[in-house]
Prior knowledge:
Blueprint: H1 3-24, H2 35-71, H3 90-153, H4 158-185, H5 188-192, H6 195-210, E1 213-218, H7 227-248, E2 252-259, E3 271-278, H8 291-305, E4 309-314, E5 320-327
Parallel strand pairs: 1-2
Antiparallel strand pairs: 2-3, 3-5, 4-5
Helix pairs in contact: 1-2, 2-3, 3-4, 3-8, 6-7, 7-8
Amino acid sequence: MPLIWRVLGTNAAVLVVALAVLVFSPATVSSSPRAMEVVVLVAGLAGMLALDYLLLRRAFAPLERLTDFARGVDPLRPGDRAQAGEAVEPQVADATRAVNEMIERLETERRDSARDALAAQEAERIRIARELHDEVGQTLTAVVLQLERSARELRDAPVQRAHVEEARELARTAAEEVREIARRLRPEALDDLGIASALVSLATQSARHAGVRVAHEIDPQLPPLDDDAELVVYRVAQEALTNVARHSGADAARLRLAPAPPASPGGPPSEVVLTVSDRGRGFDPAALAGGGERGIRGMRERAVLAAGRLELESAPGEGTTVRLTVPVARGPRA
């Protein structure tokens, strides 16, 4: 039944009941109403309003549930859809479908815009990494070579030679840091060897530069991922390990990449799960703010790009676990 007719029918039923009470009950109202008659009329009116409220609340309950759902939609947690339920009015079912279609469009548009933004960001990373390596890095290497020649020429001036050698070591350190920054901006292993080798390299770099030992476990039977999904997995792992080094206080972490259990026994896996965990100080996710919030939000936005989902588990004193789930490639990769 259309909602408008249901509301009209509810109000009509209440009025019919009130009319029947007035017609068939012995209650009467004097031309000069007495106090008791006023009390009866007020009580009757209150009863009619209460009955009308209960009936209308039941009629509008599906719309209230739809409103609550729409208010709780989180664009960084895609996939949720409103459920109309059974035996609902056509208008409610239509409104539910319209809300779901709107959410689908918004998620698609957000995913497309995020993909464009990420592509632009990665292109800029590649450009900066290339310039750092080819220009700044080469310039610093030339400075190191020049200082080495100057040091050899100052054999008879030990004090000046010591200053030149100190400057040479500073220049060499700067050149190594520039190359490391270039590698972090765009990991060559990801382009050349794939996500498994890139994550192993990332774990090694974390141990060497951040002092965090990373026990890595990469499933050898890993199903193929799209290029976007591989990039998202790498960046989320990179951000998660950076957070371990900066905030957890832990000196060890665990990184695992493996297929998710298949939906049907014996079937192929449809998702891949990245897990980065530590046993550090942990935190309350509900109280997260500032830079940490931006870091988590960035990981969630990347997960949306790959049509995946990001889960964060942490509590003070109990460590932190970041879990990213992304779908496998739909077809053979080029």
